[in-house]
Request: fold
Amino acid sequence: MAGEVRAGVDIGGTFTDTVLEVEGRIFSTKVLTDHTAPERAIVQGIREVIELAGLSAGDVAMVIHGTTLVTNALIERRGAKTAFITTDGFRDVVEMRRENRFEQYDLNLVLPAPLVPRKDRYVIAERLDWRGNVLKPIDPAELDRLVARICEGGYESIAIGLMHAYASGVHERQVCDALRWAKPKLVLSLSSEVAPQIREFERFNTVCANAYVKPLVASYLPQVTSRLAEIGVTCPVFMMLSGGGLVSLADAAEFPVRLLESGPAGGAIYAARYARSHDMRRVVSYDMGGTTAKICLVEDMEPKTTDTFEVARTYRFKKGSGTPVSIPVIEMVEIGAGGGSVAYVDDLRQIRVGPESVGSTPGPACYDQGGDRPAVTDANLLLGRLDPSNFAGGKMQLSVVKAHAAIAGHISERLDIGDTDAAFGVCEMVEENMSNAARAHAVESGRDLAGFTMIAFGGGAPIHAARLCEKLGIDRLLIPPGAGVGSAIGFLSAPFGYETVRSARTRLEDTQSSQIAKLLEGMKSEAAAFVERGKKGARISYRVRAFMRYIGQGWEIPVEVDDSPGALTPASLKELFDAAYRNLFGQIIEEQPIEIVSWVVRANTPLPKSAPLQPTPKHSPAKVTGARPTFDARLLKFVESKVVNRDDMLPGQTIEGPAVIVEAETCSVVPSSFHAVMCSDRALLLSRRK
Reply:
């Protein structure tokens, strides 16, 4: 059995999802996340799926892990004591940000505090130009004095970000070598290695974030491997990166900032896998867990990616109010709308939901673990969408009484309405928040969601997805098998991969093909080294993008590039840029000079091959196991809904809404406006009635 069994573990804010793949079969479980020691939930989950599969610990050949540890550390400011060293005159860049107001009319606007306070930011007199040439060398005596101050400060981790270090890391390495010689145990992060890109604010933030969480991750990852070894799981452990690739633990520990969105990245890969198998070219993936909801566009079977990401937004999840980091990431919009999101009434007597979450402890009031504030899960329970005796596969008994008390005490009584109306208001608000986020994300990408298919997964998404489709005008909804643990399953479909970035500003007419080819060859070698350390002897493919813009513009656009011999000419690059620009903005600007700002190279192992989708058999009615009243948001009343066990449904069987299709990790709500059919790959396809 060794070599055939792989495990995926996704630590979320509320639940830790664990899956085990055995010769194509998936065994899964959900356990509450232990925030004091996250590795405990990993061990418990692995034990449970091994037992479900009837295997022993030694049969597991690989564990793939995604975690919210880095994100939570940045949000909660639980990182290491960190110092930041930068060029003289640029100490306050991380505080001044971009000098814009993300909410123009809020007179009480407070900007997010930098990760590194001003007293812990140090400067050194040095300077490179934008091409990496030395304008002012480092004075060895000044460097010695700086090193002495750092050593006296009692810092655990040091971030080094000097001006124009993206073009040359020579001065950063000089500072690094001096610190390492004086204090070998210091943890060091260099911006020329972590994020060699232009724009010092984003680059400085990224290297500070990496340094801030590096000691934490360096201590956590060995705990994972040691705790797994205690139960006999001694196989290699790999980490999922935010860009959708797998790397070794050592590389993840060196660049932990790339783990920021590792869990959601697995979900996007999961959605892309089913988009490919069902030949769906335009997909919006919807992932809702216990703490957050994520929306991602998947076009031509590939999740949309970007090179910047904003974490820990402080102002109603508004763009610009968080800490930007420059890392490869699958692009998605994330809002505080999960099953554990807190519902409340604001000063205007309006129902609001999130972003605060009750998490796994104490959890929603219905968990009966001491929580008394209402959450989305409490509202779903009162609306009949959840079965109190069959939650999480029957492992948890939900308290309807506690849910009623929480909704009544915090919402119904304040608004003088019934508990049902209050619960409906909570769900309608969270669904409206998610649909607004999806619309905004689509508009920012120049897309109209009409004609898209939604793929829903996560413990909460199948409950709310059909209502989102009604709001967004989407007619088809796919809920894949194992949707409740979709991100963890997505880990098993992820390739080994790594992405490198280099900023090298060049006017297009001055571009020389030989210089570009030399730069790309070095970037390919660097990216391939990460892949090789994860999977030796793997066949590697490369994807090359150039970030280009018209000279005078503030931001660039990604352009897919053919790097074959003879294809890197200015004329070819201009043709590719024109096509990409026209696709985004409708027309190009004639006669305006173009420049290349950065290059991105991604190295990947091949994606796992999936079996071809077999035709769905002729439709027949599914077996109904019961019925219960559920609240239909469109009809504004309770309706008698059929209850169907998903495991009992055979390919080709259908169920007309209203219905609830139940499974161990979630349930799929089919409203009266939809009907569902079980596809041959056991994915549920919900279609809107004509």
